[in-house]
């Protein structure tokens, strides 16, 4: 774009100044704002990815599973996919702590390794965050003859 201006006072020839046209809306869209990912989002992704691994019976400690079973029985209550998962999310990295219960007879180290691989792949693919660590605590082993932990049904008075 070119602007022509004249100075009527001094009688000189018109001066020519040039300006570059400003292109609005250009550039990389990813650089035009900030995306934040809540801890709960990463926890859900990690919880679902961990449960997909063969040999993982359930997630969470005994107490958490008991409270979860009660919550699941309440009308309108949904199954918590974040049970047994804790995430710390930064701007570009995340760290995860998982507590799992494995089935009896499986190799705990193989299951833990598979859980770690599956969780890292899912979280990094879906969020773009760099997973710096996945700590896994095996809190229990599900024996074949054990019944599922079911709390007593609530009493109505």
Sequence-ordered SSE layout with sheet pairings:
Elements: E1 2-5, E2 15-18, H1 39-51, E3 56-59, H2 62-73, E4 85-89, E5 93-103, H3 108-127, E6 130-142
Helix pairs in contact: 1-3
List keywords for this structure.
single chain; 157 residues; alpha+beta; 4-stranded mixed beta sheet; two-stranded antiparallel ribbon
Describe this structure in words.
With 157 residues, this protein is α+β, with helices and mostly antiparallel strands. The chain is 29% helix and 26% strand. Strands 3, 4, 5 and 6 form a four-stranded mixed beta sheet that branches. Helix 1 packs across helix 3. It is rod-shaped, with a radius of gyration of 29 Å. It starts with a strand and ends in a 15-residue tail after the last strand. The mean pLDDT is 81.
Instruction: Give the C-alpha Rg.
Output: 29 Å
Distance between the termini: 82 Å
Number of H- or I-type helical stretches? 3
Helix content: 25-40%
Please give a quick description of this structure.
The chain is an alpha+beta fold and 157 residues long.
């Amino acid at each position: 774009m070119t602007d022509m201006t004249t100075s009527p006072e001094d009688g000189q020839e018109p001066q020519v100044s040039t300006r570059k046209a400003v292109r609005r809306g250009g550039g990389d869209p990813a650089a035009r704002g900030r995306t934040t990912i809540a801890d709960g989002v990463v926890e859900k992704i990690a919880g679902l990815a961990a449960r997909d691994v063969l040999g993982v019976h359930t997630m969470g400690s005994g107490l958490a599973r008991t409270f979860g079973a009660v919550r699941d029985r309440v009308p309108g209550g949904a199954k918590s996919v974040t049970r047994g998962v804790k995430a710390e999310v930064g701007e570009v990295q995340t760290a995860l702590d998982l507590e799992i219960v494995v089935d009896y007879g499986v190799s705990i180290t193989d299951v833990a390794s598979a859980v770690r691989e599956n969780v890292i792949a899912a979280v990094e693919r879906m969020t773009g965050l760099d997973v710096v660590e996945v700590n896994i605590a095996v809190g229990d082993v599900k024996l074949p003859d054990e019944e599922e932990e079911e709390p007593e049904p609530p009493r109505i008075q």
